[in-house]
């Protein structure tokens, strides 16, 4: 008896079973068919992969993309997996007990040294020694917060563009009437999330702790170091490894103090990013050019297209304001941390000066991951004006003391602004002049109010005396005075 050739559905079920297992394979088949995708026609579409493993992977992606909307949770689960995979690229050594103990030791010493360099107390957070993958776990939620508004703009633009395109007949047959705009919106959101995951995973191989970017990536006050990255960084320096560990631990602890005890700062930074993201405009002509020749179900091609610089070159006034606010705040944070760290480590680390300069250059130059975020998000997280900010903080501490310097973080209206960074040397003189002007205005208002109160008091006294002297007069009795002639 001749064995019957299996149907197209059965072939795809077998391939998915090999990839996903029997239960997940059947579930994937049902999900695809419920979405209107005909598996038998899937392979016949021109340009689609014919290799069973590639096809199964594509179908698995389609199942996730076309499933019920879950607010982007599935997109970021995949981004999480991409980020961890990128973190493991080239190796991700587990944190040994010795590394964990050393991390706790240098972070504890860092807080002791910082007590002499700042009025802000220790953060009180937990101390972590993290692998690169663990750094991804702890920071990816904040990256999602930063990137998700922009991902929405990208996805909507992609959906708008693709909805206007007339699909080839075979593609329409494959999709079985699925809304191409809705599908591309999901594809765009997923692709963007995967790009952010890739960048976060790459960044995990470069960072020393939870605050290298200037943004508060850890959701709670805590201290975190990545021992593998500290060790690799120290290997290329002339300074002893222990000095490098202590120097970077002090920087991490200084950041943690700032974000723990300046409650408005986290919202100020992330709010500037959100304000910028709300005004994002996508260059539709450039995006169309990028995706014209790709297979929209090929996530690698789509990710490559979306990384090609799709943001409009012009910024709105609101975005310009947000960028200026963010640039100034990042510079102030980095400048304060740099200055406080330098003062804290100077009595203890012989190589503190070259280490400070090395970190300055490293932050100014950035790295591949920061370049990726710039392309994706349209934002640069490099504190270009950190030197000016450090000079300003040093000036205030020298002239007025640590308490006055740290008190400038008390409110966003009190911290130095972009104009102050333009001329740090004149900061205190300008503040003194402004304070004197405010004092003069207050004094003038007080004098004016005292004068009015004095006038009213005198008027009331005179008015009262007049009434006393004319008691019984016709006016006081409510009547009119009579002419002399009428009294006769």
UniProtKB/TrEMBL annotation:
| Entry keyword annotation includes Hydrolase | yes
Pfam families from the xrefs? Zincin_2
Q: List the residue ranges of the region (Disordered).
A: 456-488
Xref: Gene3D superfamilies: Zincin-like metallopeptidase, N-terminal domain (1.20.150.30)
Locations of Basic and acidic residues compositional bias?
A: 464-488
Under InterPro entries, the record lists: Zinicin_2, Zinicin_2_N
Q: Which UniProt keywords apply?
A: Hydrolase, Metalloprotease, Protease
- What are the GO MF terms of this UniProt record? metallopeptidase activity
Q: What is this protein called?
A: Zinc-dependent metalloprotease
